[in-house]
Amino acid sequence: MLREEAAYFSSRYEDAVREPDTWWQEWAAEGAVGATRVLFVATDDGGMLGVVGGFRRLNPDEVQLISLWVDPRARGQGVARSLIRAVAGWAREGGAGRVVLFVQEANAPGRALYLRAGFRPTGDREPVGAGRRGFKLVVSATVDTLLSHDESPAA
Fold this sequence. Notes:
The protein is α+β, with helices and mostly antiparallel strands and 155 residues long. It has helices spanning 13-16, 21-33, 79-93, 108-117, 143-148, and strands spanning 37-44, 47-56, 62-70, 98-104, 120-127, 135-142. Strands 1-2-3-4-6-5 form a 6-stranded mixed beta sheet, with helices on both faces. A hairpin with a 2-residue loop joins β1 and β2.
């Protein structure tokens, strides 16, 4: 996902592959426990359809959704929506009432998906990161909105 759709993510492939395997293993292990971070993977018989992560922010009422990606073959089938709801459910279980995320300004499909899911712009905008051009927007939604919001068409 970081190679094929690099413009849509704040993380760069070049930086991600520099992390040692132990770093990724620890992240995945912590995500499996689900205390401070979580990782959800959508699969079918053909393999992985999508992935999303989340972590608890300093504000205990907020969870940040990160790295949502859906395989092109599964787009438009509700996979992204299911992954967003999984993070919202995890947030609710931990007592958080709001989910926030950063979306690249250049990522028109992602921005549209998040709006359909119930996220709304906060008005905050930040540079993408060192050595990269562009901006990312901050959007947020209540957990209740994400768990009850119905969208059309399927994402």
